[in-house]
Design goal:
It contains five helices and 35 strands. It has about 600 residues and is mostly beta strands.
């Protein structure tokens, strides 16, 4: 987790094994794990807050076996989690208890988020314990957990105003008739400058019910701060673009807007690893493993699900099958690419993932939730009607021959025909940077441009591959079906092209990028590392009667010999070399002639469509 201000870091030695003392009242017994610790308490203070958020960590020094940490006394916090280096084997069991005003809580099991953060760490799901001032961990791990630490987040008070419900129209279904009162992101204090764009689903097919973790003890006044602490942990601690859930419900029945854009659109969240696209998640802020959710909480969950089902035309009593994609969050029950069984549209997190979420008591309420949602949607359809069906995909012209599969221009033109009922259109992308995998799941898209026209230009950065698509949006802002237009790649940036041997640089306006690398030395090479799934190498080179030859290597294998000799000179010819199979690794272009120069301006690595 990135630390706000000057974070306090304390190294704490864990106690290994030992005789078990008397367990706390209500504690969960874990074989071989001492339930209490008789050593000294570790004391630490939070750093200064930044933008109302303080984040700090305490390192725990652990070895293999069963361990219990010393009690940690610290500044009041809103949320705590355990995290560790991802190189370690998965722990067998993790528990946490917190110190509140009345003393130590019971022990709570912690679920593990299986996604590795950008800094190479795994973590538990966030444990909400607003106002607590102490924590203690219990761990079972065969090989220890290197880099283990407690991560704390505290959010200062940020009063929220409850947004009023939208006015319903009795003449035509707008999809907003059932919208409940919602606390907006601005009202609970989301920092939009630290929130990144999420990809977008194609339509809504299923809705997940979640719970968080921790004692159900936060106050009504502090509930918005709890939401903000989850946002801070997900963005800073886990490296996600935004809070993981589309909507949250506190223990008082108040509904909060989660991931940015969830009220009007379908941003992909992190609610169910492998099944985040074409679904939404409603997370109840509490633990319902052994405590039943209050009626006001269930009513709020029903309100959100009924609104979304009516807006998107989803059958609350229906079933849906989803194909497993790459996971962000808990582990899917089926392998990548496998289709799930037909499961209820309104489902618990545990239905598709290896987790106890949303807790046994809340999960038991799902049949009643489905019936209540169905009743509300049926009444809404009788009074207001149904929302329109999803719009058809636009008919689109393929990318121009000069723009695909490789483009030298910084922008390409995308054109399509009008769609009946469309209010505007979105140009979409699936993209991959040089040396990187595809940035989004194959079942979702990033929005690039919003327009009312039927033609536009989109700019593509150097070294990136884009699969481009277009879709219409209806008057309600809902997306139509997607039409893929084509895939194109731009040459890698000059900083990724290494030169070995003797090369000089010649600058002329006619060359691509106004520059060419020139060599007359046999064996001189241009090297591009970190190719990913390349299916062709394209040389942007000067050709002519006196130009030499180049050998193209994929790794250590010579795949082609290219002659740049041509009767008619060209300053920026595109020369294609198809690879025998998709290749990831190092591409090398080696000059073969001593007397005939080669002049190469750039190299592009064509990738297959990013589907």
């Amino acid at each position: 987790m990135r630390r706000a201000g000057a974070a306090v870091v304390v190294v704490v030695a864990l106690v290994l094994g030992g005789a078990a003392a008397t367990a706390d009242a209500g504690a969960t017994a874990v074989a071989g794990v001492p339930p209490t610790y008789a050593g000294p308490t570790v004391v630490a203070s939070a750093p200064a807050a930044t933008d109302g958020i303080a984040a700090w960590s305490l390192d725990l020094d652990t070895g293999p076996g069963t361990t219990t940490s010393p009690p940690v006394s610290t500044s009041p916090f809103t949320l705590v989690a355990l995290s560790w280096d991802a190189v370690a084997p998965a722990p067998t069991h993790l528990e946490l208890r917190v110190h509140e005003g009345a003393g130590w809580s019971t022990w709570f099991d912690l679920a593990v988020d299986r996604t590795t953060s950008p800094d190479g760490r795994l973590a538990t799901e966030p444990f909400i314990a607003d106002g607590s001032d102490g924590a203690q961990a219990r761990i079972v791990a065969d090989g220890g957990l290197p880099g283990l630490r407690l991560d704390f987040v505290h959010v200062a008070d940020a009063p929220a105003r409850v947004a009023s419900a939208l006015t319903a129209s009795a003449k035509q279904a707008t999809g907003s008739e059932l919208r409940p009162k919602i606390v907006s992101r601005a009202e609970w204090g989301a920092n939009e400058t630290k929130t990144k764009q999420a990809s977008s689903s194609t339509w809504l097919k299923a809705m997940y019910v979640h719970h968080t973790a921790g004692p159900n003890a936060y106050s009504r006044e502090r509930a918005p701060a709890v939401v903000r602490s989850i946002w801070a942990f997900h963005t800073s601690g886990r490296g996600w673009p935004d809070i993981g859930y589309q909507f949250l419900v506190d223990r008082f029945g108040t509904v909060y807007e989660g991931r940015r854009g969830s009220i009007d659109a379908l941003p992909v969240g992190a609610q169910a690893g492998g099944f985040n696209a074409d679904t939404i998640g409603v997370s109840v802020m509490g633990n319902f493993t052994s405590v039943a959710p209050p009626p006001r909480v269930l009513d709020a969950v029903v309100d959100v699900l009924a609104w979304q089902a009516h807006r998107w035309g989803v059958d609350p009593r229906g079933k849906a099958r989803l194909r497993t994609a790459k996971s962000t969050g808990s582990t899917p029950r089926w392998a990548l690419g496998k289709l799930s069984p037909a499961l209820p549209v309104i489902r618990g997190h545990r239905d598709t993932n290896h987790t106890a979420c949303p807790g046994a008591k809340l999960y038991a309420k799902l049949p009643a939730i489905r019936r209540a949602v169905d009743t509300k949607v049926t009444r809404a359809e009788r009074r207001f009607g149904t929302t329109p069906a999803q719009l058809a995909a636009p008919r689109a012209a393929p990318l121009a021959e000069s723009s695909a599969p490789v483009t030298l221009a910084s922008a390409v033109t995308v054109s399509w025909q009008e769609v009946d009922g469309a209010a505007r259109y979105q140009v979409l992308k699936r993209s991959a940077k040089h040396g990187k995998d595809v940035e989004q799941t194959k079942y979702a898209w990033f929005e690039v441009k919003d327009t009312r026209r039927t033609s536009t230009k989109v700019k593509i950065p150097r070294g990136q591959t884009w699969t481009i698509a277009v879709r219409a949006l209806d008057d309600l802002g809902r997306p139509g079906k997607v039409r893929t237009v084509g895939t194109t790649t731009r040459p890698v940036a000059a900083k990724h092209v290494e030169r070995t041997g003797r090369w000089s640089t010649t600058r002329r306006p006619a060359y691509y990028g106004r520059v060419a690398h020139v060599s007359r030395e046999r064996g001189a090479a241009l090297v591009v590392r970190k190719a990913v799934d390349a299916q062709a190498v394209w040389l942007v080179a000067a050709t002519g009667p006196t130009r030499g030859r180049v050998a193209v290597f994929a790794g250590s294998k010579r795949v082609a010999t290219v002659s740049l000799s041509a009767r008619t000179p060209q300053s920026r010819a595109l020369v294609e070399v198809r690879l025998p199979e998709r290749f990831s690794g190092t591409i090398r272009l080696t000059a073969l002639d001593r007397t005939k120069p080669v002049r190469i301006s750039a190299v592009a690595l064509e990738r297959a469509p990013l589907t």
